Amino acid sequence: MNTDAFLDGNAAAGMLGELFAVEVTAAGAQCAHCGRVSVVAQARLYVDSPGVVGRCPSCEEVLFRMVRAPGRAWLDLRGVNYLEFALPEDG
Predict the structure, then answer these.
(1) Where are the domains of the chain?
(2) Who's near 52: CB < 8 A, 6+ residues apart?
């Protein structure tokens, strides 16, 4: 794997936005491997595969994988302990 050829997690905004009604790249995510908490936008995004792979910016373990096909998508978040979203205040 070429560790120099990655984008940041912001590059996944459009794809993730198709699946979620909130801005996922602004969500806090805890790496299941090292425990680092950072926003999804800070993930290292690798796109040289059939889908995309987001890796932890600290330990480089896989946080998420996403593959798209016509009319469907697969999202694997097994490298994330949780996602924390800021929600708008009711009012």
Answers:
(1) 7-17+26-84
(2) 11, 12, 15, 45, 46, 65, 66, 67
